[in-house]
Amino acid sequence: MTVRPANPKVQANKQLRVIHWVMAAVFAVLLSGGIYMSELPKEAAFRGDFYNFHKSLGVLVMALLLVRIVVLLRAALPPRLPKQPITLLKTVGLYTLLYGFMVLLPLSGYTFSNAFGRDVAFFGLELPAIVAEDKALGGLARNAHSWLAYTFIAFIALHMAVQYRYILGLISKVRGSKTNDLGMQ
Question: What pLDDT does 3 receive?
Answer without folding.
Answer: 59
